[in-house]
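Instructor's aside before we start: the two examples that follow are unrelated to each other. I chose them only because their records fit on one page, so don't look for a connection. First example below.
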Amino acid sequence: MIKNISTLLVLLLTSISFGQNIILLQNTNPKAKELKHSLNSTKDSLMLGCDSKILKVEIFNENYEQLIIVEANNTKISLKDIPNGNFIIETRIDEKIIVMDLIKHDDYNDTSNSGLYHNMEQIIEGKGMMLDEELKVIKSSPNKSIEFILTGGKAKNHSAKNQKYFWTETQIINESGSSKTMRLADQKSVDKMIHRHKLEINSDSGKLNKLTVWEVYNKGEFMENQVSNPEFVYSSSTDLYNHIPYYSTTNNIQNL
């Protein structure tokens, strides 16, 4: 089974709350100020509070989805049972959706990850954050191959020679602000992302969201270039990927 390389680029105005193995990237957009959101004292639950009624909360990524109906001004949501990974949290308040990001990792307290505190505290508005599978920040162009960095030197011999990979750019746009995530994904993950996106853009809250997917021909070389230059994917002078999107919100090039 192909190991999903979870590389997440977060472009978001945030502050950061750390749990023992959970990182909450809070939405500090002024329009999101009405929603109080943080981790609880034991760092295993999400605490939400608002003067307006909180209608529902969605926690999701391309492989996981949880919907919590709240219908109250305050709620506590346990994070113990969600799997490891990078998640988007959407909180619905009246006609507004407030977005935040959450990262969960088993061995976050390991000393090998201690530098992440310092690195993440240096994130500022407009900056990007590229994380490898162990949630270590990739801050510059690597000397080693991107495959080595992403897998920690534990790359496996995959049996799927014809496995396709894609670079995806997801934009969530609503009244409380916007966020952009960019990541490498396999065919199965992309299919789920496109399906969910089509549902979102048919709703009032998600009608401005955008998704663009490019097919990558050379995963290793593409990622080395993308880490060095986040604008690389917008170049059309390379054969490392197909510069005509496999799917985009405006063109809907790929029929599924």
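Example two begins here.
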Amino acid sequence: MERTLAVTQVLLLLLLIAGCFEAGSVAARHTRPGFLYSRTTGAGRCTPQFWSSRREAWPRMVPQTSTVSNVFGSRAYERYRYDLTLLEATARNDDEEAFPRLVKQASAALLNSYARRGFPYRAWQVKTLVIQALVSEKAAALQAQRFSIANQACN
């Protein structure tokens, strides 16, 4: 009888311990943190402002001293200053008009195409789209908006 009582007590103790662990794990699964701080990594790492800040080394394919006309071709030479560099283009503040906005966003998109794996445009696509967008203000505004969306979404 004593032996049965001892076995029963041990079983009850084990059951009690198992119940405590289960209750703790259920509580842990259903609680939410009181304060959660999350920081989106990469937010802003693809914008013209980021590239103009020089916080990251530029891709070797396009040094900061590269001119817009050398990178984007003769159509860009006709539209922008012949000595406008990509660094200057990313730092522009006159993006209320379509063509300045296009060169600013396109410069960032080109840098992202070289530096960011998974960026939706390849370098040749950025260059081609810029040349095509230079035909009109409407086309420039539309393409600048598309580049801006891609630059903002990238990480």
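The helical segments are 2-30, 48-52, 68-72, 74-79, 86-90, 98-115, 123-133, 137-153.
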